[in-house]
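The pair is quoted verbatim underneath.

:::
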Amino acid sequence: MSSNSNYLLVAAIDFGTTYSGYAFSMKDTFNNEPMTIHTNQAWNAGGKQLLSLKTPTCLLLDSNKQFDSFGYEAEEKYAEIVMDNDQDNYYYFHRFKMCLHTNKKISLEMLLEDITGKSISAIDVFALSIMALKNHLMASLVTQGTGVESSDIRWVLTVPAIWTDNAKQFMRESAEKAGIPKDKLLLALEPEAASIYCQYLPTDKLTGIEPGFTMSEPGTKYMIVDLGGGTADITVHEKLSDGCLRELCRATGGDCGGTGVDAEYIQVLIKIVGAPLIELMKRENPESYLDFIREFETAKRNRPSDNKKVNMIIPFTTLNTLCRTHLKEDFKTAIASSPFSNSIVIRGDKIRIDVKVFKKMFEKTVENILQLIRDIFQMEIARSINQILLVGGFSNCVLVQEAVRREFSNCRVVIPFDPGLSVLKGAVLFGHKSDVISSRISRFTYGISFNPKFDPAVHDKKHRRLSDGVWRCKDAFDKILEKDSVIPIGTTTRRKYTTQTNVSRIWFRVFASENNNPVHTTDDGCSFLGDIAIDISDSSSRQVLEVGFTFGNTELSLTVIQSATGIKCDAQFTLV
């Protein structure tokens, strides 16, 4: 798509665990002023606006599972609905992106539960959320009088680099269901997008570097640590002399984003008032619960003083009423009889937390982030890296910044001026120049299931099957690409396969493995990605098909050609 110039505007959607947003820039502007990127300035957050350039990733549907609202509007409307005791007639979803990271069996039939436990198709939730962001952007373009039609737009959707191919494919299917044309859509890997953005940033927009230093110098190597709400996503890049970037280590990461610290904060409250009461507040007083979490969002960015308490406004009246009703004691008494009697006090509508207790909430998440970075430095190719680029919303947290600087004191830790927008704006730049990443490292070994002649020296006897008088191995792994391979962008591996007669469609089952040399598709570490359906134009005779598996891009793709005629077959990769 990078060579296709048939667009006027690139629009990027950063679909996050906690917050989402969009940005765009015109093609002719990019050529002269690449950093002129427009973001929405007016997400309406009522009186509690925390991030004006993004909106919470939450969706409200009516009783017919039709779209009602998204973002801050959905939050505030749902709070009103609960006060009217009408929540049974609505579906409310928030922080649901992580289901694509934690779920090992992603499918188009997958269900998601809303906040009250009611289920709906997951792809509908994702598609309606993407559609809300898309429609908001289109309305903004009309308001600004750009004259840009939807057919003039190249769309970019961000995904974590550590996601499986199934999860990426699910996001693509969701975007297409949201009305984004297949041939107008690119997926951008989040740490890559941030890396591209920082290549364009002037020195005065990067903290932690000396005057005169630039990340765009050929030969510069650095680690990108993308800390979002749900995940930490890490990769390593080198700037090449032709202006491109190449990946040096396969992307790694884990579920240690900012929401992990939120969960620890909730655990402190649970130890004071109990989990049932917190769940009750979430269900029956969602507005108070949201205020509670938003206040913590602000507090966790700032560096607490070593000898002072951390002060936060809390929904004291709501908590106190719930405690009196369900615990038969007020909130202060509950604190006094908890493990935090000496470290947490209430003053008016503020909770004052001892700094040691506050910092302890970060320990587990921060240590997991540090360990991920340590693991990369254990790789031989990364040992010479002395620059770490912190991006993503959670990298705003001063405690995280200090921990990384302290642990890796021999490295220069670089943070862009607004790290929470690095991925979003970088995705716009990627849309204009998607071939800027010259090569990537394969995160998995890829192959298809096939049934070769059984070899007792290689195959497990439990897979032995008799077929037409020949002993064959069922579910063998035909390796196409090995894990940790360097794959230049657009690398195509070709294989030839022969069809049977009178067969108009054949199927391949595609697998990915965490191992370098899997033998069977049922081995530990193997996962089923999906089916490839190939339509045969002439089924009257056996056909030799040349199948090209294209790697190195942000998504797996394929082409199929009938060798005898050169006719391209229709091939579709589908999730189960």
